Amino acid sequence: MDHAAFFVAVLQLCRILASVEGRFADSTIKLSEKMKLECIYPKKAVIIQTSWMKQNGSHKENIAVLHPTYGIHIEDKYRGRIYFENTSREDQSLSFNKSTLEDVGLYFCSIVTYPDGVSEKVIEVIHPADAFEISERQNNLMFAKPGGSVTFTCPYDIGGLVQQVKWERIKAGGTDTIVLCNSVGEQRFGSAFIKRALVDCSGQASSTIVIQNVTVSDFAKYRCVATGRNKTFEMSFTVVATWDHKWFIIYIAGGTSAAVLLLVFLLIFCITTAYRKKKKRKRITKALFNALYCTQDEPGNNYAEHNYHTTWDTEGGKEESSLRPAQEIYVNCITLRNDN
């Protein structure tokens, strides 16, 4: 190998290392008017102070400082545009309510704790036009139990030297870096997976990772991106929850029992309601019959008509009325009887 070729190889290697070092971020999110830069300290420790900064050229500019005793300080440039939704001991996330294109860039969440020391998370905010797309062409379904582990294997053939392999967890509006491997065997883990992920990136044909102590946030989509000189390979995975057979049987039995009890309750309710309506209807009918019966027994409703006749005095030409009854008329009244 001549010196020129060796020099070119060294330059390419340096370029790869520089790109990996300069572009590494624990999380990547898409710029939006209202966005949240998540920064949660996963361990049990005393948080002394949290600082938020942004990369501005060759230096970092301060954004805000959180102190458990002295409160929150926000720089004038960001006042009115950022806020802290939840200032609990663990959650130090920064939220934007009026972001602009100037907010694209790298952000640093630095948490000083006792006795663990300093923990830093790097978040990259990208332009919407540069947003990533999730490929559904090779989506593999994976199963895992809470507290268990899940293993991913990504076989690839890019026809040459693999320069970089990146594993990511996909979330709404962004990604979390699990691990980034380069061609010289270096591995950089995301802050959320340093203690939970095992990786094997040594092969030129495949890469394997294991995520331990699976939590609810791990039931999501993942992708593996292998980059070569002229070709890129991508594979995606979806992790869903699975349960032990014992708990599955208990769950099914409990659900069936609850459904049966509900049906019995509804049946009893319907029967009781129908019985009450029938009884109420019977009482109303009986009351109506009684009312009609009492009305017919009143004296004013017994009709006995008398027939009266008139006599004439032929001599005086006068009419003489006699108010004596001539004949009695009887009316038959039907008595209504309720057999109920």
TrEMBL record:
Keywords: Cell adhesion, Cell junction, Cell membrane, Disulfide bond, Glycoprotein, Membrane, Repeat, Signal, Transmembrane, Transmembrane helix. Residues 1-22 form the signal peptide. It is a single-pass type I membrane protein. The chain crosses the membrane at residues 248-275. Coiled coil: none annotated. GO terms for cellular component: adherens junction; external side of plasma membrane. GO terms for biological process: cell adhesion; positive regulation of immunoglobulin mediated immune response; positive regulation of natural killer cell cytokine production. GO terms for molecular function: cell adhesion molecule binding. This is CD226 molecule.
